[in-house]
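Thread amino acids onto this structure.
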């Protein structure tokens, strides 16, 4: 569990730590020592430690040399190089998301979402941000009562909607969103806003890269009742995941393999409690008609 770390004048990032942990996993799996890894890139053991703990930005030649030494697949190497590139940009405060200080604690998440291969998200209280309409996002922000300036709300909404381009860009994000029925019946912004939001949800669910499921009231008790979370994947699910949890008092990143595995299992069990995608869309339509 990490909330951002500092060491001297260096800082670790979620991307850096996850990249480092993947290099450590590859090294352990190959049976290589830190000293052997250091020799491959003509470095000291100390540099390998800093790389594996995410303290320093990583150079592409070092990643390629180490991955070749560890026997990593070409596909995984390409994904690690992309993560390293974005991590370097993130450390330099680059990326469109940095134009929006209104994102606050969401900045790190959006930076990861921008280069992720897939996101699996479970939300019990509201429609996930990638599927929200502007009016719904605005009503949530107003209801949150955490803003002093209306202009900040508009900028926040603008940034949230900008994220949705990932669903339709040249390499679209694979999104699997599971939502509780309660979130669909909560009148956020009133009936007109919710009718439009439910219509948007059903529309986006038709996209080939988007899966939407609803956990109905009739499902009873299920493993998602205690907390909401998102699993961000940079390779095949389970290969290099991080888990994001946003609470009223803090933002938590769960970056270890056991944490990712545990939440992947929980997500699967929540999915089994939910309706099939087609039945979920039908329920969304019925709720919309009731409004």
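Threaded sequence (291 positions):
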């Amino acid at each position: 569990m990490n909330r951002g770390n500092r060491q001297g004048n260096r800082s670790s990032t979620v991307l850096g730590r996850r990249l480092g942990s993947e290099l450590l996993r590859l090294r352990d799996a190959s049976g290589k020592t830190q000293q052997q890894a250091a020799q491959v890139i003509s470095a000291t053991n100390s540099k390998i430690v800093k790389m594996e703990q995410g303290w320093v930005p990583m150079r592409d030649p070092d990643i390629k040399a180490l991955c070749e030494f560890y026997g990593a697949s070409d596909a995984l190497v390409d994904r690690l190089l992309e993560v390293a590139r974005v991590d370097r940009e993130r450390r330099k405060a680059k990326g469109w998301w940095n134009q929006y200080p209104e994102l606050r604690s969401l900045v790190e998440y959006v930076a990861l979402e921008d280069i992720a291969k897939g996101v699996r998200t479970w939300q019990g209280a509201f429609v996930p941000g990638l599927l929200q309409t502007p009016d719904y996002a605005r009503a949530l922000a107003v209801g949150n009562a955490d803003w002093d300036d209306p202009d900040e709300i508009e900028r926040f909404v603008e940034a949230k909607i900008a994220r949705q381009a990932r669903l339709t860009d040249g390499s679209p994000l694979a999104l699997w969103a599971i939502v509780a029925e309660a979130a669909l019946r909560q009148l956020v912004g009133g009936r007109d806003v919710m009718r439009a939001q439910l219509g948007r949800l059903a529309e986006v669910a038709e996209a080939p890269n988007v899966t939407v499921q609803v956990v109905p009231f009739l499902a009873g008790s299920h493993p998602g009742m205690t907390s909401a979370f998102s699993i961000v994947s940079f390779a095949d699910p389970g290969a290099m995941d991080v888990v994001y949890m946003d609470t009223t008092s803090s933002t938590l990143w769960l970056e270890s393999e056991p944490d990712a595995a545990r939440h992947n299992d929980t997500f699967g069990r929540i999915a089994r409690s939910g309706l099939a995608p087609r039945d979920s869309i039908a329920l969304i339509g019925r709720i919309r008609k009731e409004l």
